[in-house]
Amino acid sequence: MNSSTVIIDDTTLRDGEQTAGVVFSKREKINIARMLDSIGVQEIECGIPAMGKEEQDSIKGLVDLGLAARLITWNRALVPEIEASLACGVQAVDISLSVSDQMIAHKLRKDRSAVKEQLKVALGFAKQHGLYVSVGGEDASRADLQFLVELMEITRAMGGDRFRFCDTLGIMDPFGMFDKVAFLRKAVPEVEIEVHTHNDLGMATANAIAGIRAGARFVNTTINGLGERAGNAALEEVVMGLKHACGVETAIDTHRFREMSLFVAKASQRPLPVSKPVTGERVFAHESGLHADGVIKDPHNYEGFDPAEVGLTRSIVVGKHSGTGGLIERYRSMGITLSRAMAESLLERTRALSCRRKRDLSNCELMALYLDREALPKAA
Ligand SMILES: [Zn+2]
What we know:
Elements: E1 7-10, H1 12-16, H2 26-38, E2 43-45, H3 53-64, E3 70-76, H4 79-88, E4 92-98, H5 101-108, H6 112-128, E5 132-138, H7 145-157, E6 162-167, H8 174-187, E7 192-197, H9 204-213, E8 218-221, H10 235-245, H11 257-268, E9 285-286, H12 289-297, E10 315-316, H13 324-333, H14 340-357, H15 363-371
Parallel strand pairs: 1-2, 1-8, 2-3, 3-4, 4-5, 5-6, 6-7, 7-8, 9-10
Helix pairs in contact: 3-4, 6-7, 8-9, 9-10, 12-13, 13-14
The protein binds zinc ion (ZN).
């Protein structure tokens, strides 16, 4: 694995917008696409043309931007849907088929051979029209692996460009994910694999990374992990996970992650949890005496990476668990130098106030306590 092997296909504008109750305006879609493009995301899944005119207009608007990123649309593996994509001017399509026996029998009410035939017709049509094609295996994680191999063989024979292994229900664990992707990679090495993971069991990011480690070259992500039900693998988590847990640099500039997270949180009306991995407001906030002291001495003591990498800043929080080191540092950031004795006297009061208010203290509250220090026993 190296940077050139991992390609991000961000689907904030498709699976992300599919989140129940989420709607992006055309302007918001353009902003999100521009941000993704500006940080080096190589591919943007930008919508579902078969949905109708409004969606088609917004996709055409994205095509008109002339981004460096490739735009890809989502389609069922049906000729009219691919035609709708062609009419939008995109050069790449994902053509999706349900591939598990559960969905083939109980959703499509068909059989495996019908699915294979459908793939041949749709893929043949898309390739005749010069499209780049990702063959999407919906519910691939519950499908029979031999059947997936058969579909990938058809994909290879007909010039399809990659196969999307979808953990549609988010029921995989990273070890199972690794094994399945490694098996398929070996069975049909000519067809690249993309992993599409969901977070129903909290493992979307881990499963995406496991898929990449098993040889998938493409990974589907969304900003903030937005997506159906519990969401998809978060762009910012996958990129930082690859970098810091796996030692794999991607081509992505991470410095705008916080800004992008905030923008998408607002546009989706899904507030960003303060402890959201990588981009949450408080993931670099330190309060407890030991941790604050350790970070003040050297941030590497308690931070796995520099907050500046993702556009965040470190903060020392004063609350119930603070120690004198953190208190001195926090006042120093406010332009006030405390002696250790003064800090010790103030600490009791800050802790007591924090307990009463059940939260950490603001600069205003800290200033008020400081100004009231005459009431404190005289520091030596
Ligand atoms: Zn999905």
